[in-house]
Amino acid sequence: MPEVTQPPHKDGDFFVDYESKVFEDVKADPGDKALVTFHTVAFEGSIGLVNILNAIRLQRKGYETSILLYGPGVTLGIQRGFPKLGDEAFPGHLNFNKNLERFMKEGGKVYACRFALQALYGHGEPALIPGIIPILPQDVLDCVLLHKKANALIIDTWTV
């Protein structure tokens, strides 16, 4: 049996080089827009959280950034908590809520499809995190088209 002679890792150790950035730090030009769409179920994978964080980063880089929740993506924008709304049942339980609230507080807009909200997931508009703008299902396509006409950066997120 080979003997392990390497000392164990400890808190504070680095495993990779966190300081050598390969690409320039891109900032938005005046008027640049971004749209991040979500057609993904809350808690079914990491993409919901990752792209909310990407939207926050785009906003901080100067892009006028919007998030579009449609289909199962509306589940990211629902108020949660247990046993009461706002109570975090386990660490990370409210990560979508907290990060969407932070995004909106920093000037981002979040839209949620009313059809998916009610017809697919049985929620009404009062179930949305305050600040999320409910839209008609016909607005989903128009939101994307308006961003496309504005030459916006569009990140489409789909999970199946």
Give the topology.
Layout lengths: L32 E7 L7 H14 L3 E6 L25 H11 L3 E5 H7 L12 E3 L1 H13 L3 E6 L2
Parallel strand pairs: 1-2, 1-5, 2-3, 3-4
Helix pairs in contact: 1-2
How would you describe the overall organization of this protein?
The protein is of the alpha/beta class. It is 28% helix and 17% strand. The protein has 4 helices and 5 strands; from the N terminus they run E-H-E-H-E-H-E-H-E. It has helices spanning 47-60, 95-105, 114-120, 137-149, and strands at residues 33-39, 64-69, 109-113, 133-135, 153-158. The chain has a 5-stranded parallel β-sheet, sandwiched between helices. Helix 2 (95-105) links the parallel strand 2 and strand 3 (109-113). Helix 1 (47-60) packs parallel to helix 2. InterPro entries: DsrEFH-like, MSMEG0572. This is MSMEG_0572/Sll0783 family nitrogen starvation response protein. It comes from Rhizobium lemnae.
> What percentage of the residues does DSSP assign to strands (E)?
15-25%
Radius of gyration: 19 Å
Beta strands, count: 5
Q: Span from first to last CA?
A: 45 Å
Identify low-pLDDT runs: none
State the strand order across the main sheet: 4-3-2-1-5
Using the alpha-carbon principal axes, give the shape: globular
Oligomeric state, counting identical vs distinct chains: single chain
Structural class: alpha/beta
Number of helices: 4
- Percent helix, as a range, is 25-40%
Order of helix and strand elements from N to C terminus: EHEHEHEHE
Overall pLDDT, averaged? 95
Major sheet summary line:
5 strands, parallel
InterPro entries: DsrEFH-like, MSMEG0572
Organism: Rhizobium lemnae
Protein name: MSMEG_0572/Sll0783 family nitrogen starvation response protein
